[in-house]
Write the structure tokens for this entry.
Amino acid sequence: MFDKSSLREHMLDKRMSLDEDTVKNSSSAILNKLINLPDYDNSDTILAYYPFKNEIDTIPIINDALSKGKRVGLPVTLEDHQMAFYEIWDISEVKPGRYGVMEPAMDILVDDSDAFMIVPGVAFDMRKNRIGFGAGFYDIYLSRYPDLYTCALAYDFQVIDAFEAEEHDKAMDVIVTESQLII
């Protein structure tokens, strides 16, 4: 088994080596699976993220949710590894935030514990465990909202058989890749 640090580094290197066409095609395949999930379709609020460093492109997903009249929130990082989700009505309503990640320009808080949350990650396993960038923002947020329905988007290569999860790690409800749904 990999340790988290070396697995994170390996996966980030592999993700950063992807070309634009691969990111686009993989993201499109994942979008097609995601929008057909009943939990996504039935949710009035989507908590998403703006893509960063070759992550699955969530912009088409955000636009899909907005076109269906869903509330969409994107994260803003705060002090002490906290984050909050602020509403957007158009994908253009973002600005560079902390760490170079695009964040909402508006400050209308979305605090919906019944939301469908799209969670980024660096690596995942078949038990639906997640490794993020290592700062703990999502772990802390999810500990405050344990009942959120969580959906991770990943390239096939980001999902491995198993790694050691920590007690505070919350397994995802579903992971969507180009070729599979891990439920």
Q: What stands out?
A: The first strand starts at residue 45 and ends at 47. The mean pLDDT is 92. The domain at 4-182 is CATH 3.40.50.10420 (Rossmann fold).
